[in-house]
Specification:
Elements: E1 4-5, H1 6-11, H2 18-26, E2 30-32, E3 35-36, E4 43-44, E5 51-53, E6 56-57, E7 65-70, E8 100-101, E9 110-116, H3 119-126, E10 134-140, H4 146-154, E11 168-173, E12 176-181, H5 188-194, E13 200-208, E14 211-212, E15 222-224, H6 227-234
Parallel strand pairs: 9-13
Antiparallel strand pairs: 1-4, 2-3, 2-5, 5-6, 7-9, 7-15, 8-9, 10-12, 10-13, 11-12, 13-14
Bound molecules: uracil.
């Protein structure tokens, strides 16, 4: 049984700071196993003890996994002095220490960004060795050709880089294609199309592994990923 300070346990879940916990304790609003606590430094076992705040049980999660529908103009970074980041879009109820985007989308790319505080999981889904596929809807300034399709399937050689892994390109309409890649090189899709003299004018990530971006999420919105959904990314 490992015990930690109750203010540390509560603040690790993001909603309340340690200072908030002190205030809640002074207002007699926190209970530990049915007893009102008088000291925010009291130790508790996050797994086995029952902590309630304002009568509501605290459900302690080790890590958090969020699905964000990233809008244009937001950077995939944890903090930036001048620009809005994907972490700025996380609502307070999900905010906690150590959140970061697992993989980057360009500033002008929209769609599925996974935000977590679980470094091991992020490593697992980002490592090209694990072949987790990412699907994007890409819109070009010129018509998509069968030649592009063949080149993507064979693996594009980007200048000064190792050859890309084979990718899939499904033509949706004249200028739009569904592209599936298994790695995340810098500006990868834009550069792959660039080899054919094409400019990517729209790029939207729709899935990671077998998990699709929830269509009910408006741009800038985010929600928690369920345990079952999380498994879909790596299955
Ligand atoms: N490929 C790109 O070129 N940009 C992205 O944001 C993602 C994949």
């Amino acid at each position: 049984m490992s015990k930690e300070r109750i203010d540390k346990i509560i603040s690790s879940q993001g909603k309340y700071s340690r200072k908030d916990v002190k205030t809640l304790v002074s207002q007699k609003r926190i209970m530990l196993n049915g007893e009102i606590i008088k000291d925010s430094g009291i130790k508790a076992d996050a797994k086995n003890d029952r902590i309630t705040i304002n009568g509501e049980a605290l459900f302690v999660r080790k890590n958090i996994y969020l699905m964000l529908n990233k809008p244009k103009g937001v950077v995939s970074a944890t903090d930036d002095r001048t620009q809005k980041t994907v972490i700025d879009l996380v609502p307070d109820e999900f905010k906690r220490k150590g959140l970061f985007p697992a993989g980057r989308l360009d500033k002008d790319t929209t769609g599925f960004v996974l935000i977590t505080d679980d470094g091991d999981f992020a490593h697992k889904i980002l490592s090209p060795k694990n072949h987790i596929e990412k699907k994007y809807m890409a819109t070009l300034d010129i018509p998509i050709t069968e030649d592009m399709k063949r080149g993507f399937n064979a693996g594009i050689q980007l200048k000064g880089e190792k050859k890309c892994m084979p990718a899939n390109l499904e033509i949706i309409d004249t200028n739009t294609a569904l592209v599936t890649i298994h790695e995340g090189m810098y500006h990868q899709i834009k550069r792959m199309f660039g080899c054919y003299g094409a400019k990517t004018v729209g790029l939207h990530r729709i899935s990671m592994g077998n998990l699709c971006l929830d269509k009910s999420l408006k741009e800038g919105e985010c929600r928690e990923i369920t345990t079952e959904e999380l498994q879909k990314i790596t299955e």
